[in-house]
Amino acid sequence: MKKKELEIILQGVPDFIHPQIKLEQYLTPAVIAADIIFEAYKFGDVEGKNVVDLGCGTGIFSVGAYVLNAKSVVGFDCEKECIEIAKKHAKKFNFSITYFSKDVENVSTKCDTVIMNPPFGAQKSNYQADRKFIKKAIEIAPVIYSLHLSKTIPFITKLISALGCEISHFKNYIFPIKGIHTFHKKQLINFDVSMIRVISKD
Q1: Range of the domain at 45
Q2: Whose CB among 36, 98, 191, 198 lies 3.0–4.6 Å from 144's, allowing a Cys bridge?
Q3: Greater model confidence, 120 or 31
């Protein structure tokens, strides 16, 4: 499968119905999700692997991993509504993906690869939520792909190093977020984000 074909499939993943501000729920653009999953695929971290999508939302990374022949795919999110949306979409297309409504701190499933777009931690109610996701991902998998605000990467790098891991690869993107909430003053806001691949130092 070509990356453009994957992108077209991911464009069909439904958006959030009632996005939660405090959880920073924004659908990852299909073009970015497809590129990240293809990066993971090229590194040999998807095909034939057990993949977990932490903070899966409506399942865009989960669907991408499944389509690129992951051995198994499990998505976790604390918000029940988006899990139901993800389940409905997977059932419609016969995607063998398992979804659970569970807070990230309560996830104990071990896997080969975590692919995630955690909350950026920009909202005061969700401050440093990205750190919580990084810690859990390192706990359950030897390889992690994660998306963060570029300006936070120096802090994320220190955390990762303190946890005995390192960044082996990264890639930058422009992440557009629609002004869907009343406090948004613009219809579209672009953020500089970076995808990092995290592995153990050993």
Answers
A1: 3-12+20-200
A2: 198
A3: 31
